[in-house]
């Protein structure tokens, strides 16, 4: 059995390393063009190819970008402007024309994955436009379903479509949106298209700017937030927000509709008084999110598979109105240098986390949960406090006099504690995620009189 575990671990490690070296199907980026200083399309394409980003979302259907991405394997989400919705809704011929000019003209050279009809329409307060959304989606679907069946039709929502999201298990759509949403969700379900939404932990922090909220939003050590209904202790805001969306979809009768995160990001700069906007925070959020997606832990309600996520944004948009933060989400500068190291580089010098992937359905076969190399004692102490305190696991063996007390180091005690939580919480990959500070191993960490749970 141990040999099989070792073999499986070796295979998963190789697969994970392979996926780290190539583009990752679940990492995308938003390319907004409200700017006058953007690099030429071919330079942007070369930049994308130097990263693990494999998907781009445009807000419109810029022909130069779509053509430049032809043959790269990088897929594109294109957008229908809100102003085009009425004509597409009212006239099937207009929808056919739009589809021919903006989708069919580029296939198959370019890979167009989704047409996002309208942006943030349902929470815009424009009920007339909202009522035209579904007919526009249906007309575009009719125009494309035969000629381009792989192109999905969806629409992008803000978190404001939720009336409630905390705790995540109580996630629910606004009751006045539900009648309209049911039609749209039925369409997405029927056509196998994703529900697209923009969760921003940054905005959650802005409305609750306490240090513990910041740590929760930035994938940093924190004691988590316990959801009393699901009994899940959430360790980061991204998972909590995405699972609230999952709960809302489930409650509306659409448990198999996939969620795509169409935007999420953190500004690296803001005006005086714009709390939380800094390079350090932007780097912590984005690199923490990328590492979390790569851990393959998924979210507690959707384990074992990362949510497809489009980072906001590729470049700053210098012509956007509003506070400085609105123009300061860019991962890259117009000269193609990185604003900060987000862990997206394809080269070996990026800092991907060690693989801890366990494919779905293989739970419980992976041995023991231990700290990753390079994680600080401070982080491990926070994990230890969480396991032995908040989660109330049996930590007596690492207390003075216990069989695993020596060596009396934070790392050794954290290893024991992380493994106890993993073994007693179902041996699922996400039980060994913590904040990406733990990993699974097939090597039994037991020693002398200290037997780790999970050892037969
Ligand atoms: C979702 O689609 C599936 C497969 O087509 C269907 O069986 C199911 O009834 C649909 N659910 C709803 C709520 O429409």
UniProtKB/TrEMBL annotation:
One of its GO terms (molecular function) is glucan endo-1,3-beta-D-glucosidase activity. Pfam families: Glyco_hydro_17, X8. Residues 1-23 form the signal peptide. GO terms for cellular component: extracellular region. It is found in: Secreted. It is an enzyme of class 3 (hydrolase). Its EC number is 3.2.1.39. Keywords: Disulfide bond, Glycosidase, Hydrolase, Secreted, Signal. One of its GO terms (biological process) is carbohydrate metabolic process. Its main location: secreted. InterPro entries: GH, Glyco_hydro_17, Glyco_hydro_17_plant, X8. Residues 344-363 are annotated as: Disordered. It catalyses: Hydrolysis of (1->3)-beta-D-glucosidic linkages in (1->3)-beta-D-glucans. Residues 347-357 have a biased composition (Low complexity). Residues 367-452 form the X8 domain. Belongs to the glycosyl hydrolase 17 family. This is glucan endo-1,3-beta-D-glucosidase. The lineage of its organism: Eukaryota, Viridiplantae, Streptophyta, Embryophyta, Tracheophyta. The gene is LOC120277371.
